[in-house]
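Progress report, Aim 2. The chain analyzed during this reporting quarter is listed below.
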Amino acid sequence: MSHHAFGVDIGGSGIKGAPVDLRTGELTSDRYRIETPQPATPSAVGATVAKVISHFSLKPHTPVGVTFPGVVQQGVVRTAANLDPSWIDVNLRGVIRTRARRDVRAMNDADAAGYAEYRYGAAEGKDGLVLLVTLGTGIGTALIADGRLVPNTELGHITIDGRDAEEYAAESARDRHGLDTAAWAEHVNRYLQEMERLLWPDLIIIGGGVSKEFDDFGPLLDLRAPVVPAALRNEAGIVGAAAQAAESARIAKQHAAARE
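Predicted structure tokens for the chain:
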């Protein structure tokens, strides 16, 4: 049994990938990154993903996972706020399969990060409900319930005091509203309190670039659940995509064996 898979993280500014050791969650080679083409159409992005994959000498049956900054249902893109709108209702798996001649597991980028943190990072082995919240230009969320990922949660768009949560508590809101760290932390705390009221998580993980500043604002948060910074930082998307691809391949093999 191989202990390696490959992850690709599609972002608004860059598309990067690397092979992953599934036993440790560590990259086995330096990431390879190409700037996201503009416009970021399915054809252009698919070709770029294919270049990232072909940069590495992968074995034919290496599981490959690809993240996307939007809702992905059964491989089909449903939202694409930070990429070209022509992605809507496009089969991402099909696009990559055509360009790279490999089947892939396609998933939301926040889901990949959350799964990576559960498998290898800040929530490793944690029972119960884990909530990952990425605070950046917007708010991304991932839910892992007793080790199972609940895909495509868009909890950054709930309403807080009459406003979309992203407008209220994303990292970008700090500059947009001229908030100092303490004032912004109050906004984040209010958002997370609403998450606690609705979900009762056992652990909350803060991801995104602000996780590096957690020591500045983390102590200002007042919540029931423990709140910790993400551990895998910028590698989380790649690692989570690879791990989910390997898990999907394992389940597919089990189902095939059961039918024989």
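Residues 4-111+235-259 form a domain with the Nucleotidyltransferase; domain 5 fold (CATH 3.30.420.40). The first strand starts at residue 4 and ends at 10. These observations will guide the mutagenesis work planned for the next reporting period.
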